[in-house]
Design brief:
The complex is a heterodimer of chains A (109) and B (117).
Chain A (H helix, E strand, L loop, with lengths): L2 E3 L3 E5 L4 E8 L6 E6 L6 E6 L3 E5 L2 E6 L4 E6 L8 E8 L5 E3 L3 E6 L1
Parallel strand pairs in A: 2-11
Antiparallel strand pairs in A: 1-3, 3-8, 4-5, 4-9, 6-7, 7-8, 9-10, 9-11
Chain B lengths: L3 E4 L2 E4 L5 E7 L5 E7 L6 E8 L2 E4 L6 E3 L9 E3 L8 E8 L12 E2 L3 E5 L1
Parallel strand pairs in B: 2-11
Antiparallel strand pairs in B: 1-3, 3-8, 4-5, 4-9, 5-6, 7-8, 9-10, 9-11
Classes of the chains: A mainly beta (109), B mainly beta (117).
Chain lengths: 109, 117
C-alpha cells in the first residue's frame, strides 16, 4: 500500500528553527509537495521538490532524498503566525496525489 | 481577483437528505478536485475532473456525485447513501500538466464544513 508518515504534532519556540519530517512509500514518485493549513482554512502551497536536494524560499526550506523516501520542511526564525498544520503530499506513478495526515506545529512565545 | 470560492462555509443537514456543495473558480484551470478532510487524516480524494463533461472517481467516491458542465464549476452532491458525511470538504483546481496528471500546484477553496444532525 501507499503510505506517508509525518509526526502528528510538534512544539517549538518563537524565533527558533524547526524541522518537520515526511517519509513516504509510494508506487513511483513524481514529486513532493508541502502545504501549510491554518485551522479551519484552505491549504496553501509552500514548496514542490522533484529532484534531490534543498530548495530555499525565504524562511522556509524543503529537502528531498528520493533514495531514502524522505523529505523535510525547515522553518527558520519562527513566528507565532507559523502555528498551523503542515501537509506533505507525494505524486505517485499514476500522477495521483497521496496526502499525509499533516503535522500540527504549535509555536510558544 | 482570481481564486476559488466554495459555498456555504457551514452547512447542516438532516440524515436522509441530499445536499450540494458549490465550487467555482476563475483561474481558468482545466482540472478540479474534491477532497474530504477528517481529523487526524490526510486529504482523501472524492472526485476529480480534468476537462468539461468528464470526471473520475477518487478513493472514496461512494455516496457522492459530481457534474462538470462548465469549466468554472464543479459542484459536489453528498447523497443520503454516504454513511458518514460529517466532514470538512475542500475543492481545489490546477492546470493539467503535460503528463496529463497531477504535477502542478493545486489551489484550494476555503472549504465547507458539513454537519449531519
Amino acid at each position: 500500500g501507499q503510505n506517508i508518515d509525518q509526526p502528528t504534532e510538534m512544539t517549538a519556540t518563537e524565533g527558533a528553527i524547526v524541522q518537520i519530517n515526511c517519509t513516504y512509500q509510494t508506487s513511483g514518485f513524481n514529486g513532493l509537495f508541502w502545504y501549510q493549513q491554518h485551522a479551519g482554512e484552505a491549504p496553501t502551497f509552500l514548496s514542490y521538490n522533484v529532484l534531490d536536494g534543498l530548495e530555499e524560499k525565504g524562511r522556509f526550506s524543503s529537502f528531498l532524498s528520493r533514495s531514502k523516501g524522505y523529505s523535510y520542511l525547515l522553518l527558520k526564525e519562527l513566528q507565532m503566525k507559523d502555528s498551523a498544520s503542515y501537509l506533505c503530499a507525494v505524486v505517485d506513478s499514476n500522477y495521483q496525489l497521496i496526502w499525509g495526515a499533516g503535522t500540527k506545529l504549535i509555536i510558544k512565545p | 481577483d482570481g481564486g476559488i470560492t466554495q459555498s456555504p462555509k457551514y452547512l447542516f443537514r438532516k440524515e436522509g437528505q441530499n445536499v450540494t456543495l458549490s465550487c467555482e473558480q476563475n483561474l481558468n484551470h482545466d482540472a478540479m478536485y474534491w477532497y474530504r478532510q477528517d481529523p487526524g487524516q490526510g486529504l482523501r480524494l472524492i472526485y476529480y475532473s480534468q476537462i468539461v463533461n468528464d470526471f473520475q472517481k477518487g478513493d472514496i467516491a461512494e455516496g457522492y456525485s459530481v457534474s462538470r458542465e462548465k469549466k468554472e464549476s464543479f459542484p459536489l452532491t453528498v447523497t443520503s447513501a454516504q454513511k458518514n458525511p460529517t466532514a470538512f470538504y475542500l475543492c481545489a483546481s490546477s492546470i493539467v500538466g503535460t503528463s496529463g496528471g497531477v504535477i502542478n500546484e493545486q489551489f484550494f477553496g476555503p472549504g465547507t464544513r458539513l454537519t449531519v444532525l
